Amino acid sequence: MSRKQWLVVAAGALLFAGLAVYAQRPSTPPAFAVGRPAIAPPDQIDEPRLAGALAGLLPLQAPSSSAPPGRIKVAPGPVTVRYTFDGGVGRPITDHLGGHELRPLGQNGGALHLVRQGSGLAVSYPDRCRLAKPGDCPRAILEGDRDDNLNPGTKRLRYGAEVRMTASDLADGANVVQKGYSVGKISQYKLQVDHRLGHPSCVLAGDGAIHRAEPGVNVADGRWHTLECTRAGAKLTLSIDGVPAATTPVPPTLSIANAEPLRVGGKGTSKANDQFAGEIDNVFVQIG
Asked: What are the residue ranges of helices labelled H in the chain?
């Protein structure tokens, strides 16, 4: 083998050895490479961010067809329903046991949103409308089906909700939760925050009379407040944040029973619906 041939063979051997060593090095991606984002394990997922992902616009539904009233009954025994709204926009709005569904209804572009409230969610209602023609205002409520199990008759009754309102949310009518009407010989129980003073009130109506417990307390201060109405015997009491604030007498024989659904945020979607503005959470009704 000539000297020239020997040099070519030696160079080739060295090149082969170098390639073999390079192939065994740990690989590092180039600086411009884009990889798949890492997914945190379940125990490291940020729960507030997860809850935030469940918030958003509630899809409106068509009103249910009116069922024949039939004979109106009352709850045969103790009943409790509670709505936390924490299921998110992708699930039906049901009570804590998965029943008593509420449907979002709207008119004139009125919409309902789920928003963050603590570690859960609350319902945000349309801003207070100041149009010259109130009938053109956006309106939106939550409404259930007829449910005679939510008629207390003369039984002990507790109902209420948590609300957050500001002075700009106030109006002559702002219904929080209700079943029935106070006119037309239809009985009713209702919680509202009426007037420009931000006074909450509990209402029982029937037999041509309206009974209202209303304290001189303004709850439209931008903070969350728990409002609770209790009918026990001959008294109707409104409590604010767990403290009794107003009491009014009611006839022990006054029976509250009607074929109307439970409604949250207004008495309907037609004009002059006493539309609520602000946020509502933890709605409950307890009979017995």
From this structure: 3-23, 47-54
